[in-house]
Amino acid sequence: MDFINPCLFSLGLLCSAGLSDTPVESGAQPAVVAERAAPAPAPAPTPAAVAKPRSASAVLANVQRFYDGTRDLRASFEQTYTNTVYGSRRTTSGTMLLKQPGMMVWDYDGSTDADFYVDRDSLWVVEHDTRQVLTSDASANGNIAGAMKFLFGGESLIKDFRVRLASSKLVTRYGQAEHTVIELKPRAASPDYKTMLLVVDDDSGRVDAFVVRNQDNSINHFKLSSATRNAGLADAQFSFVTPAGYVESHG
Predict the structure, then answer these.
(1) What pLDDT does residue 24 have?
(2) 44-80 per-position pLDDT tens digit
(3) In total, how many domains does the chain have?
(4) Is 205 inside a domain boundary?
């Protein structure tokens, strides 16, 4: 099944060109006008030019601040999984719920798509097509503990990843207006994924898309939308109970 292998989770969006691998310099002075030339009115700066963060590390710090201040979050998601070896692609959708500390639900719309529950240290994968539930230690799962770590904030974000601004090619493919795309690589090699892209809202630090490139070069590409933050989600929405008739096994 596509969503129980190491290709779990990642995301990306449509694009705006114009970003480079290096930060945009701020505070540039206008060119000096010759004394005899009539001064031309200066064009108004675009909002994007004013708002762009200064460096990849500053963007990542802004991400940390946003999620450190997030008690709970609800968003719709669209996931596209691409297998580059076979040239296949599958798109699914659903609802993501997040609550501190360490609770998360990925509830897929499809009746046969697996759902995911995380409650601090435990992970449940509900396989509806086989009517079984796989449980494991969330902290030992590379995708949960690594690729999804940004959703819970904390200093480990900066400590555990090397970060740089994404290349113009990746920005063109996954970027959004008024967002900055940063590329993260785990400092300790992960058996599951190589790199991750975060598409970060320049004003808030909210991640509106993320893309995970797995070790087999398959790609998970998520788009998040309609996000509602700190609305007081109840703990009961994160409580997992094995459905009647399902078999539970421990991994």
Answers:
(1) 32
(2) 544 444 455 579 999 999 999 999 999 999 999 999 9
(3) 1
(4) yes
Q: Which domain holds residue 179?
A: 52-229
Looking at the domain assignment, is residue 39 inside a domain? no
Phi and psi based region of residue 183 (left: phi greater than 0; alpha: psi -120 to 50; beta: remaining): beta
The type of residue at 123 is L
The greatest distance separating any two alpha carbons of the chain, rounded to the nearest whole angstrom, comes to: 86
The pLDDT, as a whole number, for residue 144 is 54
User: Which CATH number does the domain housing residue 58 bear?
Assistant: 2.50.20.10
DSSP 3-state of 204: coil
Number of residues written out for the chain: 251
Residue 165, domain member (yes or no): yes
According to DSSP, the residues that pair with 97 across neighbouring strands are 74, 105
Instruction: Specify if 137 maps to a domain.
Output: yes
What's the CA dihedral at 59, 64, 69, 75 to 10 degrees?
80
Q: How many CB atoms lie within 10 A of CB 208?
A: 20
Q: How far is CA 228 from CA 90, 105, 123, 206, in A?
A: 26, 15, 24, 11
3-class DSSP assignment, residue 201: strand
pLDDT value at 159 more than 60: yes
Tokens of 222: 């998520």
| Residue corresponding to tokens 């004013």 | 50
Residue 91: its pLDDT value, please? 95
**For residue 237, how many other CB atoms are within 10 A of its CB?**
13
